[in-house]
Amino acid sequence: MTERDSARLLRVTPHGRVHTIGTVPGVAPDGEGGLLGVAVSPSFGRDRLVYLYFSTGTDNRIVRFRYGACSPPGA
User: Fold this and answer.
1) Where do the domains of the chain lie?
2) Among 5, 7, 14, 25, which residue's CB has the most CB atoms within a 10 Å radius?
3) Contact 21, 13 (CB under 8 A)
4) Which tops the pLDDT comparison, 55 or 72?
């Protein structure tokens, strides 16, 4: 789950516990922008990839992060 204004990526357990995974750098939560969406890779169990959709100060982006990592793969 994501929080639009704080740019936090959260994990909610089946028991309802919420854990902050990290804060996405470069998110600009102005107007209708911010951290807008998240999807996990179909091969998440193997590759641990998470895709995030967000607004920056100049555009909208879809980026790929490795779950638990601070930066996108290849950065």
Assistant:
1) 8-66
2) 7
3) no
4) 55
